[in-house]
Zn-dependent hydrolase
Amino acid sequence: MPHASINAERLLARIHELGAIGRDDRGQLTRLAASDSEKLGRDLLVHWLKAVGLDVAVDRIGNIFGIWQSEENAEQLPLMLGSHVDTVINAGIYDGCYGVLAGLEVIETLKEQGVTPARPIVVAAFTNEEGVRYAPEMLGSLVHVGGLDIEAALATVGTDGTTLGSELTRIGYAGTVEPCALTPHAYVELHIEQGPVLEREATTIGAVENLQGISWQRVTIEGVANHAGTTPMAMRSDAGLAAARVGLFLRDHIARSNAPSVATIGTMRFEPDAINVIPSRAVFTVDLRDPDEERLQALENALDAQLRVIMAEEGVTVTVERLARFEPVTFDRAIVEMIEVSASARGFKSRRMTSGAGHDAQMIARIAPAAMIFVPSRDGISHNPREHTDPADLVAGANVLLDVVSRIAGG
Ligand code: HGY
Ligand code: MN
Ligand code: MN
Ligand code: MN
């Protein structure tokens, strides 16, 4: 019996159409949460949701829900699909958008097949998954599961000094639906792997069984501005040099620990930021991750201890602000097995794996059984315009999602 299939051309066309929105004059794709460019992406998604005949609801934190429900199934908890349409800076076109558009495509395919599912099916686009403009990341889905108070979330101040609430109002996506209004029966998120594993193993489908813990901190180091030419090295309180030591420490500490932990200093700025002035201040972020909670805590403690050493040795002061802290998450085994059954039935090689990236699924897993489907990323690249997944793999992932949805939502 041939397997049902999504409409590949339609899905791929929508991915590329949405991927064209939010490009700057250098052609770089950047749709930061609640920005003008993200509004354009949101507007296009809402247009598609309505064109497919879904009810569209927007909650107070700007989460968008496309809802397909009938009189017969309205009493049932919905199956939720989703991801996000905000991006990092100079992004690829698949991260997040693929999962939202594949969810829409699965619904449209089922509608075309005349299926009436046993439960409503919802496709969600969560606000500020990337966390580049407002911390923490996965903010919209965190509010959705009650992990962050809505008023505090709306008052979040971004890297540009704006508040998330005022920006959502400005772009017309400060919805009226109270958060947590939709408790799903289950949640399935389709996403590109954003890493090298599936491609390296020539495997089409990742059945994601867990997701690593994440720690985000902002570190401020205060030194003393002084003349770059006249100040002997032993007399400096150099905030810039102290900051540089942190990155080297984390890399060497992880190398010695032989653990799969990762550390990233993704943002850094100096003051007064002048070529011939010893920096008086360094402000930077530290992203630490590990699949094991104890190891992640040990890495945070090691960083904390090293900051004290640097403070004493460099004659600087250090303050740390915690931006986000999420423990590792284990996904729902039954859904993971459904993913594997579908992949096998369709002749796709699959493997169980851990997600290195954060995803909305890790938040929804707090209130419902959840799991993720991965497809390969070429060269393991993501958060980079070179992000790419072969069309055949994009379609394969969407068809596995179709099977899992049919299994869970029936009809
Ligand atoms: O940071 C992450 O892992 C995700 O891309 N927001
Ligand atoms: Mn993503
Ligand atoms: Mn991302
Ligand atoms: Mn995600």
Q: What stands out?
A: The chain has a mean pLDDT of 97. The pocket of manganese (II) ion (ligand 2) is lined by residues 84, 95-96, 129, 191, 359 (CB under 6 Å). The first strand starts at residue 55 and ends at 58.
